[in-house]
Amino acid sequence: MVWGLGEGIGRMIAGSDFENKDISLLSAAYNEGIPVTVHAALGTDIIHFHPGANGEAVGGTSLRDFFILASVVSELEGGGVYINAGSAVILPEVFLKCISLVRNKGMVLENFTTAVFDFNRHYRPEQNVVLRPTAKKGRGFYFVGHHEIMIPLLSALLKSQPVKTP
After folding, report:
1. How confident is the model over 3-17, as pLDDT tens digits?
2. What whole-number percentage of the chain has pLDDT above 90?
3. pTM to 2 decimals?
4. Do 149 and 105 share a structural domain?
5. Which phi-psi region, left, alpha or beta, contains residue 52 (left: φ > 0; alpha: ψ -120 to 50)?
6. Do 69 and 115 lie in a common domain?
7. Which of 38, 57, 73 is the last residue in one of the domains?
8. What residue numbers bound the domain in which 114 lies?
9. How many structural domains is the chain composed of?
10. Which residues of 36-62 are buried (b: 16+ CB within 10 A; e: fewer)?
11. What is the pLDDT of residue 9?
12. Domain co-membership, 102 together with 166
């Protein structure tokens, strides 16, 4: 089986005896079959310094995750929501490239919502997540605040809303 980096890490955590695996987002996503993607930039993480680090494996699985994310992004049209939480450089660039890939394949991707949650305002997330992708029919929001406050507030808001089915 060929996995992306996110699924591979989730699978490893789920099958481990790690003390806190029951609160791992990647483990829970793996167990539920929900895609989680990891977009590594080689040389940017401490793990890349390890003598056993394999750039080909990290790059290959991260590239698979790009195509997984692009597939998910292709389904945003008509009311989907994309959230960028705390990534000011890599993920906004990856997201914008996913938008480009989907649109270059001739798919309509205009009517959806994006939101950035971060501690500070940054150029890339504002341009590449909030403004450019949603310029035609979509809506983009930028929320500045501490994640430990903002994300639980978002969760509480979503849980308080009735589920709408098409």
Report:
1. 799 999 999 999 999
2. 87
3. 0.88
4. yes
5. alpha
6. no
7. 73
8. 78-166
9. 2
10. bbbbbeeeeeeeeeeeeeeeeebeebb
11. 94
12. yes
